[in-house]
């Protein structure tokens, strides 16, 4: 299940080596592209028992300083990274 689009493209983020990042998969976080814990409320509010607990953030930890493109449209097939799926929205 894909998340709610939080934007129409991607956002570039400069990762610090050894630091953990948690990419928001549900699209409801107010601190995009990062998780703020809102997915727990979203999961809880889902009526369909088959989908409860479906959303969870994706952890990223880089060993080196690097710039990455985090998906904002939440339709990527390579989460948390942009795969240009936003071009098909
Ligand atoms: S707030 Fe979206 S995955 Fe946590």
From TrEMBL:
Q: GO: which molecular function terms? A: 2 iron, 2 sulfur cluster binding; metal ion binding
Keyword Iron-sulfur in record: yes
Q: Which organism is it from?
A: Turneriella parva (strain ATCC BAA-1111 / DSM 21527 / NCTC 11395 / H) (Leptospira parva)
| TM annotation in the entry | none
GO CC entries? cytoplasm
Q: Domain named Iron-binding zinc finger CDGSH type: which ranges? A: 8-45, 57-88
Q: What is this protein called?
A: Iron sulfur domain-containing, CDGSH-type
Q: Which keywords annotate this record? A: 2Fe-2S, Iron, Iron-sulfur, Metal-binding
